Amino acid sequence: MSSIKFLEKLLDGVAVEWTALGEVAEVRSGWGFPNAYQGQANGDYPFYKVSDMNIAGNETMMVTANNYIDAATVKRLGIKPAPEGTVIFPKIGAAVATNKKRLLSMPSAYDNNVMGLIPGEKVNSRFLYHWIQTINLCTLANDSGAVPSIRKTEMEMLPVPIPCPDNPKKSLEIQAEIVRILDSFTELTAELTAELTARKKQYNYYRDKLLSFEDSEVEWKALGDMASLRRGRVMSKGYLAENIGPFPVFSSQTANNGVIGQINTFDFDGEFISWTTDGANAGTVFHRTGKFSITNVCGLIKINDESRLNYKFLYYWLSIEAKKHVYAGMGNPKLMSHQVEKIPVPIPYPESPTKSLEEQKRIAAILEKFDALTNSITEGLPREIELRQKQYEYYRDLLLSFPKPEGAGA
User: Is the pLDDT of residue 45 over 90?
Assistant: First the structure.
């Protein structure tokens, strides 16, 4: 069914009026707090900063507080807590680009880097939340200065679709039906996200347990004694653009599995482990196979004797151990080859290479199953969450694609 036919059936002939947001909701900026104020561990009201909405993996509708503020401080600072059902989002700085919007589950306070939409009697708070998801905050940000920001006056003029405006009861019934359908998708995503969080904890538990050894159980060998290490090469954006091809190039980023581009040649072919040498992601390790290249902010590990050491076993071990060896001095974290080659590696059953390799493969196989479930973007829960999110976006756009009169704006 097309979006037009779907909406026609839902609306059943009633009109839709595009109303300025400021007429159906209060647009309220946050409050200025002392720079050093971070909130409290406990208090009467949740206290939100931009960082609370941008936590990686926190993709649910409701925002979770990390800090609180007490009633006495609220009174002293003259704060009027925003009510339950307020939609909040970043209004200034780089956080605007994250496009994160959240719904308050109880009266709360937030700082002046956050803006809130407090729904009035004509609009369902969850309807307002779902509708604001269709708005790209970046298009509203004024970047004429050094820092992009969203102005209250511009938010107040943003047109909002209100079905059946002449019959408030009917209007809210239509909004509620749209909310019911869309909430079913967000609730499923929230359940899957909670399941993923639990699975990650379970994975970390078993990984740490399986890779904890007594000295009497293993022989500790320096990684440099069992593998060869080398660095990648400098590749500029221009070089990547001029040599586009099928072979991936991995860099220091962790998004997209570290892929920064693809070129028509490759420097390595086979099975390896790479690690990030510089920056915030220093010490992050990856298991690599096939034909690829790496940049100069990556290192590569090639096992000398695969009958003594298994790649997957080493990968899972280094995923725990490598971060411990990162040098964070001078403000730029680093993990250079001379540090990596000193990392101790546990070799189980050292007196029997065959038994040792079997044990390494057994441990790796168990962890690989957990890893696929919790981290894989092609299978497991991350893939399922991605599909459910796309499904939500499809029906959200279908249900909220009300016909807009000419000149109504974005």
Answer: yes
CA distance 367 to 211: 10
Given a contact cutoff of 8 angstroms between Cβ atoms, the answer to whether 172 and 124 are in contact is yes
* Distance of alpha carbon 191 from alpha carbon 388, whole angstroms: 11
d(CA 92, CA 86): 18
C-alpha 241/C-alpha 404 separation (Å) is 41
pLDDT number for residue 140: 85
129 with 105: CB under 8 angstroms? no
For residue 116 the two structure tokens come to 């809130």
Domains, the chain, ordered by start: 19-160 (3.90.220.20), 222-343 (3.90.220.20)
Dist. CA 177–CA 164, nearest whole Å: 14
Which H, E and C letters describe 268-302, residue by residue?
EEEEEEEEECECCCCCCEEEEEEEEEEECCEEEEE
Give the integer Cα–Cα distance in Å for 140 and 90: 12
Q: Is there a contact between 104 and 63 (Cβ–Cβ < 8 Å)? A: yes
Confidence of residue 361 (pLDDT cuts 50, 70, 90): very high
Tokens of 65: 């507080």
Amino acid at 359: E
Q: Tokens 């009510």 sit at which residue? A: 83
Give the burial string for 272-296 (b: 16+ CB within 10 Å, else e). bbbbbbbeebbbbbbbbeeebbbbe
Say if residues 20 and 156 touch (Cβ distance below 8 Å). yes
Confidence (pTM): 0.66
> Is there a contact between 45 and 74 (Cβ–Cβ < 8 Å)?
yes
Cα–Cα distance, 127 to 111 (Å, whole number): 24
Burial 367-393 (b: 16+ CB within 10 A, else e): bbebbbbbeeeeebbbeebeebbeebe
Tell me: the pLDDT tens digits for 183-235? 988 888 888 888 888 888 888 888 888 999 888 889 999 999 999 999 999 99
Give the contacts of 317 (CB within 8 A, at least 6 positions apart): 211, 345, 346
Provide the pLDDT for residue 305. Answer: 95
